[in-house]
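Researcher: I'd like a candidate sequence for this fold, 461 residues long. If you have to choose between options at a position, lean toward the conservative one.
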């Protein structure tokens, strides 16, 4: 495909952007022509990136927010090939990423604008709003042009790294803001907003991290250890996706982590057993599975210990979905080219077709923790703030020591965010993002079964 054809294809979605925005952008570009510079690959400061003004961003948001969101699939993320990518495959990944992110960010900005003004005026909510405005302003200069050489791709990847870093603490900051605004917005409205917002955030972050990982594991820039986001030096990975993820291994590693927490807090170390088909593998995002399993085991272990059943092991059953499962749609077979070059950690034969991969997997977590009371069961999918002080004697915005520790842990990347009441609904968001789900069956007075169903990418060849 010629560079002209690529430019035409890339700029098509933006040809109807308001003329006022394009005129201002064109004027800005003409006054600051691109200079030929050497490639200071991993040392260029992100602060040197050009971005448009907030007023220009404001002009672009309404139109971009009306564009349909591309429904991201795991197949989208692996379609550019198996690392190390050659230059053309890497540029294709960058162009695909650019085609998605501005629209996704604009949808989030518009959703924040639709909140009551007094809520958006809250300093924490406003901070998130400004973060999205800033990130969009760094991406808008790339629109209407193509990423056609490695110098452009390097700069674009640096913009993505800044975007990922900017939005690291979105969840705890939103939690602070909505708690402080609880007099002005109902719990149902908060849950509805967060459900859409956090699901959208999953996709936005994932598509950015995927390209960053592919960048650092590509032939032109091979240096996985320098990646600012996860970039495993493992030939089984395509970016951040493990093409042969073994859920049993994830259960054991997360179980050890959660059992350590229980032993520290309760002086008792719960046990667990894995049944079913522990050898099952499928293609999925390990970070997502780790988050979900950690949160579900926290609930199961805590209930088991507090119900005096610590000697009864939590039972985890892994059931692969058979390839011939009678479902309405069959997961596609994704055919990938072998690596263009073998170097570094990938200096081995490319992975053979993963015919043994399951198209999906169901994991049941069964505990003897006494079940969930009928009064609580209807609310388990709501985003709540039960760890915070809500006493009438507390001034607005008052925080308990427990609340501060939870926010602090969440802000530093800890998994204690479940203390905000986000654990179960956010786990469901991760599970449902690629077509899976979570179901809970409670036998009050006895225990709880949680069914986690995940859809993989199908066979990868």
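Model: Candidate sequence:
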């Amino acid at each position: 495909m010629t560079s002209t054809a690529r430019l035409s294809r890339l700029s098509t979605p933006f040809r109807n952007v308001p003329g006022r925005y394009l005129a201002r952008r064109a004027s800005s570009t003409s006054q600051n022509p691109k200079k030929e510079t050497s490639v200071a690959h991993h040392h260029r400061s992100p602060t040197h990136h050009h971005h448009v003004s907030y007023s220009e961003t404001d002009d672009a948001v309404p139109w971009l927010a009306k564009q349909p969101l591309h429904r991201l699939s795991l197949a989208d993320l692996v379609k550019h090939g198996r690392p190390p990518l050659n230059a053309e495959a890497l540029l294709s990944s960058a162009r695909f990423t650019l085609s998605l992110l501005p629209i996704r960010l604009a949808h989030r900005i518009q959703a924040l604008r639709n909140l009551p003004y007094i809520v958006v005026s809250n300093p924490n909510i406003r901070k998130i709003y400004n973060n999205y405005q800033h990130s969009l302003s760094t991406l808008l200069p790339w629109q209407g042009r193509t990423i056609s050489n490695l110098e452009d791709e390097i700069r674009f990847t640096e913009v993505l790294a800044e975007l990922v870093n900017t939005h690291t603490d979105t969840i705890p900051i939103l939690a602070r803001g909505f708690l402080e605004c609880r007099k002005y917005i109902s719990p149902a409205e908060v849950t509805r907003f967060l459900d859409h917002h956090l699901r959208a955030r999953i996709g936005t972050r994932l598509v950015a991290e995927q390209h960053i990982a592919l960048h650092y594991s590509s032939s032109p820039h091979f240096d996985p250890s320098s990646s600012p986001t996860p970039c495993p030096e493992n030939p089984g990975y395509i970016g951040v996706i493990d093409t042969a993820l073994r859920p049993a291994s994830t259960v054991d590693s997360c179980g050890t982590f959660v059992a350590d927490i229980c032993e520290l807090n309760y002086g008792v170390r719960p046990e667990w057993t894995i049944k079913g088909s522990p050898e099952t593998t499928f293609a999925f995002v390990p970070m997502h599975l780790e988050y979900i399993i950690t949160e579900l085991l926290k609930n199961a272990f805590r209930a088991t210990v507090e119900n005096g059943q610590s000697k009864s092991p939590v039972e985890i059953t892994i059931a692969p979905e058979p390839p011939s499962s009678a479902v309405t749609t069959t997961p596609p077979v994704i055919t990938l080219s072998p690596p263009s070059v073998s170097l570094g950690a990938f200096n081995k034969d490319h992975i053979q077709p993963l015919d043994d991969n399951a198209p999906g997997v169901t994991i049941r977590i069964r505990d003897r923790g006494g079940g969930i009371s009928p009064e609580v069961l209807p609310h388990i999918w709501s985003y709540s703030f039960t760890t915070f002080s809500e006493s009438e004697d507390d001034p607005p915005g008052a925080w308990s020591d427990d609340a501060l520790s939870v926010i602090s842990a969440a802000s530093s990347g800890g998994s204690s965010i479940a203390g905000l009441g986000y654990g179960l609904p956010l786990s469901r968001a991760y599970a449902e993002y690629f077509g899976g789900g979570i179901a809970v069956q409670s036998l009050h007075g006895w225990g709880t079964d949680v069914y986690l169903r995940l859809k993989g990418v199908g066979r990868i060849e």
